[in-house]
Prior knowledge:
The chain has helices at 27-30, 50-62, and strands at 2-4, 9-16, 38-39, 44-46, 78-84. By secondary structure, it is of the alpha+beta class. The protein starts with a strand and ends with a strand.
Amino acid sequence: MKLTDGSKTIEITMMSWQGSGWSPDISKDFFNAGSLPFDEEKNVYTVPDVDYCIDQAEDWKYSRGDHYSDSPIDPDDLGVFVEEVEE
């Protein structure tokens, strides 16, 4: 999923390890893509703050903040892959 806030653009992928491979990317569900403005020409979703989105994804990976879980989660089993993209 490609996200931009107008000053920074990233490609973010979020997956969980399924024992023999990674699950499909859940980032569009995680960030509620259907409710975000979408630029079809650039294939990018607009968010208020890209760094905040990265922080939220990291909280999911490490079970912190809004994404805290009492269930034991191994962060090695959750993948957050972020790549900055040039516009």
